Amino acid sequence: MASSFHIHNADGYEQLMGRWSKELAPRFIEFAGISGGEKILDVGCGTGSLTFTLASFADLSEITAIDYSDIFVEETTRRNSDPRIVVRQADACALPFEEGTFDRALALLVLHFVPEASKAIAEMRRVVRPGGVVAAAVWDHFGGMSGMRMVIDTVAALSDRGRQLRARYCFQPMTQPGEMSQAFAEQGLISVSETQLMVRMVYQDFDDFWAPIAAGEGPLGNYIGSLEDSERTRTDAAVRDAYEAGHPDGPRSFANIAWACRGLVP
């Protein structure tokens, strides 16, 4: 499962996105639904935000967490102390499980970074039993991530490369209204429904917001890391100015909206 999400270390990911995943996980689980005794597959587990939240929500019989990244697999394994949780390296587009193995397959903030997202949905459907649930959530990149759009629009104002980045970012696969539900239906899932989930995050100061991106984490961090020194200095200053918005550095609150979709295996 090649991914367009770039990660260097688990701590950087936590500061960039793991903190958001932890906020979103309970809302996503409520939408996807779970029942005691079920076997759940967490596709693209990252550092385990959904995995460990699932473990605290219900008396599940088994949670299998997979990720393509060795960094994520190692970190989730290190954090795990629950015997019901099994963590392994695997490709979302070629899941190493028999048909109908799980009661539900869930993917939190993953599908928009999978180039063959439809194949991943088909694989999730394959490994879930008839009557089971496939569910996923992705960020609304165009209109639902105020903090990231602040940065993306800032870099777009500085260069042609920044504008190209914005064009890719805003229209990543599965991030437009109705796009996931259409993909779910095309892969044969039934009773498909889609909704919006909103969470909010407070950053203590500009460094809390910018440090993981400046360190090269995520797609935006990968772009920042590719800049020449002078352009990097100019970009850092412009983003800081946008964050501060004419006031002293300090706490700022941003909201993110995710599209969430679920369907039943016929």
Describe the structure.
The protein is of the alpha/beta class. The chain has a single domain (10-258), classed as Vaccinia Virus protein VP39 (Rossmann fold, 3-Layer(aba) Sandwich), CATH 3.40.50. It contains ten helices and seven strands. Strands 3-2-1-4-5-7-6 form a seven-stranded mixed beta sheet. Helix 3 (70-79) links the parallel strand 2 and strand 3. 44% of the residues are buried. The mean pLDDT is 94.
Per-chain topology:
Layout: H1 10-32, E1 39-43, H2 49-57, E2 62-67, H3 70-79, E3 85-89, E4 102-108, H4 117-126, E5 128-139, H5 146-156, H6 160-170, H7 179-186, E6 190-203, H8 206-214, H9 218-225, H10 229-244, E7 252-264
Parallel strand pairs: 1-2, 1-4, 2-3, 4-5
Antiparallel strand pairs: 5-7, 6-7
Count of helical stretches: 10
* Biggest sheet character: 7 strands, mixed
Mean pLDDT: 94
* Span of the ends, CA to CA: 26 Å
What's the CATH H-level superfamily name?
Vaccinia Virus protein VP39
| CATH topology grouping | Rossmann fold
